[in-house]
Specification:
The chain is α+β, with helices and mostly antiparallel strands. The chain contains 5 helices and 6 strands. A 6-stranded antiparallel sheet has the order 1-2-4-5-6-3.
Length: 222
């Protein structure tokens, strides 16, 4: 009889423990559901903002100049607009009317066989930073911008995060683009961009030659 009572008591404790665990699981499920719903709302908000950026890039750039939130949105959008660059995880750190600074992260997909920043990754971020700043200054509906040539000088091995910096002035644009385009079908402009690592080591100097042409004179349409 005592054995039966002891077993019953043990069974009761087991069932109580099970019900407690079930209660905890239900609360956990409720917490996970709330977090998932919150994440979905945030994701939908980001997707909406990304869509707006893709529709009106210039407006998004203006907001990104003064807001880290909109720079994040802009970077997300650029990953979708330029799929080739997505694995590199380039990130615009700073952008204003005449200057851009773009992060090249030290990560496996950006490394070469000796675990330094790959020459092609350094070249690609040079191309991206110069081209993007030009796009932000020129009317992309009026002008087609396409790279004609790229020259790179490599000075130092990249063993950490690095950043490409490129700047222009309104006078430079007037001399190199607007004034020549009044009498020429197209112009090619050299853009010098420098990359340094987080310690200030000068990794590369790039010269990216961009051809700028009025869309009305372009034979190969998008």
């Amino acid at each position: 009889m005592s054995i039966h009572v002891n077993l019953s008591f043990i069974h009761v404790k087991i069932f109580v423990g099970i019900f407690q665990q079930v209660g905890r699981l239900e609360r956990l499920n409720d917490w996970v559901l709330v977090k998932f719903q919150t994440w979905m709302k945030v994701e939908l908000l980001f997707q909406k903002q990304v869509t707006l950026v893709m529709i009106n890039l210039n407006a998004a750039i203006e907001k990104a100049k003064h807001s880290s939130f909109y720079r994040t949105i802009l970077n997300w959008s650029l990953d979708r607009m330029i799929p080739f660059n997505k694995p590199h995880k380039f990130r615009i750190l700073e952008i204003d009317d005449h200057r851009i600074k773009v992060l090249l992260p030290y990560r496996r997909k950006n490394l070469n066989h000796i675990k330094g920043l790959h020459a092609c990754a350094l070249a690609t971020v040079s191309e991206f930073s110069t081209g993007f700043l030009l796009l932000s200054k020129l009317d992309s509906k009026k002008y087609r911008i396409i790279m004609q040539r790229l020259e790179m000088d490599y000075h130092y091995q990249g063993k950490m995060d690095a950043a490409a910096e490129f700047s222009i002035t309104d006078d430079w644009l007037e001399q190199k683009v607007y004034s020549p385009m009044k009498s020429q079908e197209a112009v090619t402009i050299p853009c010098e961009v420098n990359i340094t690592d987080t310690k200030g080591n000068h990794l590369t100097t790039g010269k990216v030659y961009w051809q700028i042409k009025d869309w009305q004179r372009v034979k190969t349409k998008v």
